[in-house]
Amino acid sequence: MKFTLAAFTALLAPAAAEIYFKEQFNDDSWKERWTVPSEWKSASELGEWSHTSGEFNGGGPDDKGIKTSQDARFYGLSAPLSKPFNSSEKKDLVLQYTVKHEQKIDCGGAYLKLLPGGKNFDASKFGGETPYAIMFGPDICGSSNKRTHVILHSNKKDENLLIKKNVNCEDNQLTHLYTLIIRPDNTFEVFVDNKSVRSGTLDDEFDFLPPKEIKDPDQSKPKDWVDEKKIPDPDDVKPEGYDDIPAEIPDPDATKPDDWDDEDDGEWEPPMVDNPEYKGPWKPKMIDNPDYKGPWKHPMIPNPEYEYDEEMYAVCKDECTHIGFELWQVKSGTIFDDIIVTDSLEEAQKFAEETFFKKKDVEKELFDEAKKKKEEEEKAAREAEMPDEDEEE
Asked: Which burial class, exposed, middle or buried, applies to 15 when counting CB atoms under 10 A from its CB (0-12, 13-18, 19+)?
């Protein structure tokens, strides 16, 4: 068998990145790709998506995204991938998009879901009960509850597993880039603005596997185990007359009022006050227990049910075919844009350079200018309300 130079070069070249979904929302054609789940919630509960470039947009008026536009509403939207992603191909899975909270968000979700379903996926009913493979992105409610959700579906457990430790998120009014990569070696990584904020193995950071060790069911704490660190001093005795000390005594500084009439008011008695000599019920002092053995620790044994799962990464084992937003927002005003699903982190980063990073610095400049202008206007308004010194004279 002979190989041509071209064929040999093709074998050495890395496989081209596959893009399973890309959306920039720059024109009205996005409405043809995305579906509002009209049967998920009533029309009065569903908020409307507006198509806008938003405020202080670094990409100009033609660069648009979709924005939540009504307060205290549910928001739903889904679209089919251009090509299904199947974990059986053992490729990296990268999910990336941008979020901009123009409203100074106080409470609301801004996460994205990657969904299975194929031909059986009903976009009109897509909602909170719809099975998903990945739920990823920021969720904020109050000053103490701010996180980037990373929730993965376990096929073995048939459960959605939350990451064990919180991943922080951004809550200012600028656009931020969120990226998740899941690798077939059972590792993952989360990036915010292309900076790694969390990475590790799926078995360490999620409860995909049962514990390696369990408490020995045949062992229990011995009946004669002493775990009391202190005991009453057997040589300590209650002082004689201790119980005769009253808790309260007549106030020695009190005097009978001058207008007190014993015949009309009865015999005068001084008010009672706490007795400084009273020390409460007597208790013997505590001493170290000479028989103390320390806390009893249950012996551990290998868990017979533990088995490593080589396919924890396979969240799209039965193919992921759709992507969607299923949100609740108290205060609307979040803009979503520049979504990509691919098997290449490099491809996602390249897309970010063409979109997010191209607009980022200009957006910050426009934001700072708008902020400065607002502060100057507020200052001028306050000064205008101040009384004139000549008028006061």
From this structure: exposed
Type of residue found at 77: L
Which residue in the block uniquely carries the two structure tokens 């062992």?
Answer: 219
Closest CA relative to residue 308, chosen from 214, 207, 213, 209:
209
pTM of this prediction? 0.80
Please give the Cα distance from 313 to 155 (Å, whole number). Answer: 10
| Amino acid symbol at 375 | E
Judge whether 206 and 163 are in contact, CB under 8 Å.
yes
Report which DSSP code applies to 316: T
Mention every residue, 6+ apart, whose C-beta is less than 8 A from residue 339. 21, 22, 23, 96, 97, 112, 323
The amino acid at 371: K
Average pLDDT by consecutive 10-residue portion of the chain (393 residues)? 45 74 96 96 96 89 94 97 96 98 92 96 96 97 90 96 95 96 98 97 97 95 93 92 91 89 85 91 93 94 96 96 97 97 97 95 91 83 74 54
The whole-angstrom separation of Cα 78 and Cα 111 is 13
In 120-172, beta strands by DSSP E: 134-141, 146-154, 159-162
Radius of gyration for the chain, computed over Cα atoms and rounded to the nearest angstrom: 34
User: What is the spatial distance between Cα 327 and Cα 55, in angstroms, rounded to a whole number?
Assistant: 22
d(CA 154, CA 161): 7
Backbone φ and ψ for 372, nearest 5 degrees, come out as: -65, -45
Q: Which of 209, 215, 216 is nearest to 307 (CA)?
A: 209
* Two tokens, residue 357: 């990073």
Tell me the CA distances in angstroms from 262 to 116, 251, 267, one per residue in order. Answer: 92, 19, 5
pLDDT, one tens digit per residue, over 69-93 is 999 999 999 999 999 999 999 999 9
